[in-house]
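quick one before i forget lol
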Amino acid sequence: MIEDQYVDITGQPSKLIHALAAFDIVIENVWQDRANPMMYDAPILHYISHQMQHRTLTASSCWVPFKAYYAQQTQSIDLGICPLAVSALTHFYDAENDMILIGKRSSHVLNHQQHYELVPSGTVDPSCADQRRANLTQKILEELEEEIAIHYNQVKQVTLLGCIADKTSHSMEFCFDIVLHSKSLKWRP
């Protein structure tokens, strides 16, 4: 069973609008001088608030430019940006063993370089959104296919577990439980 979980998209809070305007030139200069030109500026969702009742999410967010978040993280500018991200405990089975996928982050990412992480994971972008809301379940399934080439039809179950505030990356991560059909992935030691 795959349960869609959505987050509402609203306008930017006035405090965030003022912070982005006040640091506009700094943000642009930091972005132009970035160490990794492979990073690109695209809208990301900024977490505002959420409530969970019986595994149903009610949350609000707004779009912010990635380059503003990049400046916040690399220059210690307090813009108050809190990216909304997704991750999953992805289960697969080999005989009678229940295993979970874990990956190692590259050295080219903004946060937690070379650290281990749950697979899949990622920041919420416009690929899973319309004008009013973003589908977090769709995003985690997109990441599953992008990161490890597992299509959503190989997924047996997706359930929202909860959320985690990451104090290092200043992000709010919504964590899912993904169960793959038994033949979706084979363990090779």
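fyi The helical segments are 14-22, 24-32, 66-75, 136-148.
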